[in-house]
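Forum: Protein Structure Q&A
Topic: Joint prediction for protein chains with partners

I've read a bunch of threads here and the consensus seems to be that you should model interacting components together rather than docking separate models afterwards. I'd like to see that in practice. Below is the full input, 264 residues plus whatever partners are listed. Could one of the regulars post the assembled result?
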Amino acid sequence: MTTAPFPIAPDKHALERGDQLAPRFNADGLVVAVAQHADTGEILMLAWMNDEALKLTVETGVAHYFSRSRNELWKKGETSGQLQLVEELRVDCDQDAVLIKVRPQGDGGACHVGFRSCFYRVWEDGRLVERG
Amino acid sequence: MTTAPFPIAPDKHALERGDQLAPRFNADGLVVAVAQHADTGEILMLAWMNDEALKLTVETGVAHYFSRSRNELWKKGETSGQLQLVEELRVDCDQDAVLIKVRPQGDGGACHVGFRSCFYRVWEDGRLVERG
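Posted by a regular:
Agreed with the consensus. Here's the joint model:
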């Protein structure tokens, strides 16, 4: 397992325009990660990555997160089969957020509640409506 | 301005399957918000909302965030013209993340660096490549 840390961007220009992946982890050592379906564009879930999870995601092409509730590395789908194969990884301007375009394996789902996406509820007329 | 707080879901079922918007703000009083282009599906940016920003977003149909760097309410586009008209608002299973599908106004951009999306850099062959 690779544990070498990511570099720290020396200045704003390097952070925003540089070609080095220099994630700005928060005080808890995490960046936020958005998983988008590579084919449909649907937003599947939002989770967090520590440096190890990000490195493993980059190196293996399979999405790894950090579970804040369990306080441990989380290879998404390891038990459910809903592995996420990473088609593309992007970082935002100030490198505190990661976007991964993924192809969910197994039953194609991403959400523990049973929906394909975690964002299965829409705000309509003052209440949340499920759209499976 | 409405400042009444959002309800707190009484249990897991209400949180995950209920029809009440009961956001789980973090210790800083924030939920993470992903803005997706309503027409193209492109992920434009990731930012944060406090209760006031979320309420204003829901009530006005214009995206409001909370700027962590300026520590204040941030009506996106107020100075740049890049207002984001909200087409749809979704919440995730455990209600600590919000997805808004928006139509950016002004020049259609969302990123302060000048790109349409903040996620303008793709990880390719061990480095970040800009894709404008």
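Chain A has one domain: 25-130.
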